[in-house]
Design brief:
182 residues; alpha+beta; Rieske Iron-sulfur Protein; 2 domains; 4-stranded antiparallel beta sheet; 1 helix; 20% helix; binds FE2/S2 (inorganic) cluster
Length: 182
Amino acid sequence: MATNNAPTGSDRRGFFRQGLACGVAGLAALAPAAVGLRVIFDPLRRQSATAASVKVTSLAALPADGIPRKFPVLADRVDAWNKFTNVPIGAVYLRRTKDDQVKALHVACPHAGCFVDFSPERGEFMCPCHNSSFSIEGRIATPGSPSPRDLDPLTVEVRPDGGVWVVFQDFQAGRPDRVPVT
Ligand code: FES
């Protein structure tokens, strides 16, 4: 005798209800896992944040010709698992404006973070990524510049022993106001 095995309407509704329940349960299980991964990797994410007073060079190593020179910024870095000694955390341009006065600019372009180059011929900083340019003081030099703000100035201190110390800080790119990366 022939039997009719085609699913009925109530069979189909039951199937969809079961599928929906499985999907909701799966999402509920994934949420704590996602939070856990975020916590685990948080120290790595925090490695990009910087705010420290760092000795970059000495006054004797900085020519008094007013031309900006690029220096790496080295510091110790600690995360949840490791301590790294004297590793690069960024770079700055230093410019000696008077015998004992130094100005510092962050090398990162505020548009999207590419490192700018100083052109002695043009007397300007040029960004190789999208052609922003900045005066020697770090001010936007071109109308319609892709960069939404001037280069980021950093606090400099020349200590009695001639050490040049910079308060190094990263700032968020792509916005007109200066917001530290935390
Ligand atoms: S990153 Fe410098 S202009 Fe875009």
